[in-house]
């Protein structure tokens, strides 16, 4: 007689299954022929439609639960060939609600009790976990979509900002986008140097040329002039047809003298560039080339945003604006006229000739008009250095050889020290 014959088989199975009775999963035990011998309370609670399943063939139970043929075949093949099986997602309809289970099963082996050699397994309800995972995936998907939308919007805004930058002077663009406060009511009075230029006989040019070629010429001209204006720190106010308006002293200023000098240096650089591009413009159809007149004035202007709630312009208002425009219209071909204020500011660096006294319309006194000849120094641009201390103010008018200026300052220091020693 075998050892196992001294024990009740059903009682032994019950004892071996004791740990699964109160499990939160739906557990079962089947013999090696896949006949169900034992299930726990949760198995009956999970699947009330099954009723009594004792001695039922387990694949038939799966069939009754609505498990797909593919998964049933997978279960049988895996359990027979590998001794264990895991099907992570088994969809079962319970009371018209779809629930998701994982099915885990494995062969059991016992050398003392042959009837314990069978199949032990459990259904794990993963419906809530699956719902949470699905919600997480939806949330992640939504975040990815939001991120994609944000990136697309950012690209559109970047593209818009790039296009908008072409309509504004760099200084004005920076002032608008860097400033946190509302710009609509910001105005101030500042001493500015104002520059006007236009193309001589531009109307005749427009009448003679095809629109496409005319556009090429005017865009080329304004692009070149704008590049020079930005190089010298000018704020481009606007284009009026072929006319260009630039001012110095806002939003940033070097001081009224250096602002005026930068303006004149800019204008001279423009004149030189116009000469260099004559052959190019003639090739485009401007047979007689392009000639430019310029006017510059200096004085106090009101600067800020002007316009309506629908459209604002960051611009300047004041008599220096009108005067610069008048001087430009008075100038001879390829010449530049400046008013007396500007002339006084630039006289140390720029040669000028007196032209006449002139009382523009709307002005109460005559204005001295001067023609700019050339820079006294041939250097394209000089840095004017200054320092004001408690007792001494130093102005370096020629920084072309800064080391020589430093040596000169040292010699002055030594001279004063000798005076003190005496």
State the main characteristics.
single chain; 422 residues; alpha+beta; Beta-Lactamase; Alpha-Beta Plaits; 14 helices; 15 strands; 28% strand
Compile the SSE list and pairings:
Layout: H1 9-16, H2 18-21, E1 26-31, E2 36-39, H3 41-46, H4 58-64, H5 69-81, E3 84-94, E4 97-107, E5 118-125, H6 127-165, H7 170-178, E6 187-199, H8 202-208, H9 211-231, E7 235-240, E8 243-248, H10 256-276, H11 278-284, E9 292-307, E10 312-317, H12 319-330, E11 336-339, H13 340-346, E12 350-358, E13 367-375, E14 385-388, E15 393-396, H14 402-421
Parallel strand pairs: 9-11
Antiparallel strand pairs: 1-2, 1-5, 3-4, 4-5, 6-8, 6-9, 7-8, 9-10, 11-13, 12-13, 14-15
In short:
The chain is of the alpha+beta class. It is built from 14 helices and 15 strands. Strands 6, 7, 8, 9, 10, 11, 12 and 13 form an eight-stranded mixed sheet that branches.
What does this structure look like?
The protein is an alpha+beta fold. Helix content is 43%, strand content 28%. The chain has 14 helices and 15 strands. It has helices spanning 9-16, 18-21, 41-46, 58-64, 69-81, 127-165, 170-178, 202-208, 211-231, 256-276, 278-284, 319-330, 340-346, 402-421; strands spanning 26-31, 36-39, 84-94, 97-107, 118-125, 187-199, 235-240, 243-248, 292-307, 312-317, 336-339, 350-358, 367-375, 385-388, 393-396. Helix 9 (211-231) packs antiparallel against helix 10. The model has no long low-confidence stretch (mean pLDDT 82).
